[in-house]
Amino acid sequence: MKRKIAVIAELSGKKIKPITFELLSMAQKIHRWEPSRISLFIVGDKIDKLSRCISADTGYDVYAVNTPGHVKYNGSVFKKVLTSLFTKETFDYICAPHSTSGMDYAPALSIALQAECITGVEDVFFEEKKLCIVRSMFGGKLSAKFIKGTTPLVMTLQPGSFKPCPDPKKIKIENTKTGKLTSLIYKTDENKMRFKGTEISAGKGSDLGKADVIVSGGRGIGERENYEYIEMLAKLFPRSATAASRPICDYGWVIYHKQVGMTGAIVSPKLYIACGISGASQHVDGIRDSKFIVAINTDPEAPVFQIADICVVDDAIEFIKLFVEKFKKNSPNS
Ligand SMILES: Cc1cc2nc3c(=O)[nH]c(=O)nc-3n(C[C@H](O)[C@H](O)[C@H](O)COP(=O)(O)OP(=O)(O)OC[C@H]3O[C@@H](n4cnc5c(N)ncnc54)[C@H](O)[C@@H]3O)c2cc1C
């Protein structure tokens, strides 16, 4: 019997975001082992035209779920609409992006459907004919493997985990001529949450692209308050900026604009100073083009030292304090 996979698209205005194509790649990987019917759900205001194009281009069955009046993501509408859809028609796997909105609606949807939920999925594979799901735990220290229990199973996919297909035409499933388009309208007076607008945080935009020197902090800085030493070090250099590895953005110590790496900014400064950063491949992906890299890490075996031009084996904060002190002492203006 064929499995049924629902992929929930992520939109930016009237455009499909690349994570949607990563989700379809994951669905296809499952399909290769467990033959499945993959359906794409596009939820938004007036999305029939877009849905028609996607279904024609990809060959997937597309559900155009029109929510009149809700142009922007609205959590309470999304949860209500998706719960109603997946109660009427059951799917084995419901795949959503691990984005701000996906993280908002997916767990709520799983509760409403009494389904299992695995967030931040990084890979799926089959072992002894069972679907296994991989995600990081303890802030990336461990990689956990889950074996699928009951269905439906709700999953959110970590962006960057699967290669998105740049050309949607290439993901056309064999033997599928054109996808079936189902247009639905969900009128809802749901008003628990109302979209008021977006604005860029004042003075908090990313200046990473323009900086000659980037000082970046990772989990090794120990605590939020220590990020001020990263800022202090950056201030010694003209045209400098501060950055961060993903975990400390996830902790909320630093805004996401500053995240460097595969799912953050790709930078190429003249000098990149990595403080308390291990050098995981996903971080290194974002700093490879830096002209000169200095890494400060207490672990002499830290992978970051393999790409660093200068390796400092020391406590990052103690080193910065000493460096700043010496710099100021030797500075002509002191
Ligand atoms: C799909 C996917 C996408 C990802 N995208 C990104 C991304 O874009 N950017 C990103 O950064 N990560 C990303 N990650 C996460 C990545 O895998 C790592 O978990 C992350 O980069 C680790 O961050 P870190 O080096 O700060 O922390 P850790 O790996 O915990 O390293 C901390 C380091 O600090 C050192 N340390 C400890 N104490 C001190 C001290 N007192 N002084 C100096 N050093 C000390 C330790 O020896 C260790 O090497 C992604 C992961 C996945 C699965």
Question: Can you give a write-up of this model?
Answer:
The protein is α/β, with parallel strands linked by helices and 334 residues long. It has 2 domains: 3-185, Rossmann fold (3-Layer(aba) Sandwich), CATH 3.40.50.620; 213-330, Rossmann fold. The protein is 26% helix and 27% strand. It contains 8 helices and 16 strands. The chain has helices spanning 18-33, 48-58, 75-88, 100-113, 227-234, 246-250, 281-284, 316-330, and strands at residues 3-8, 11-12, 15-16, 36-44, 61-66, 93-97, 116-127, 130-137, 142-147, 153-157, 181-185, 213-217, 240-244, 271-275, 292-297, 310-313. The strands form 3 sheets. It has a 9-stranded mixed β-sheet, sandwiched between helices. A 5-stranded parallel β-sheet has the order 13-12-14-15-16. The chain has a two-stranded antiparallel ribbon with strand order 2-3. The radius of gyration is 23 Å and the shape is elongated. The chain starts with a strand and ends with a helix. The mean pLDDT is 89. The structure holds flavin-adenine dinucleotide.
Features:
334 residues, alpha/beta, Rossmann fold, 2 domains, five-stranded parallel β-sheet, 16 strands, binds flavin-adenine dinucleotide
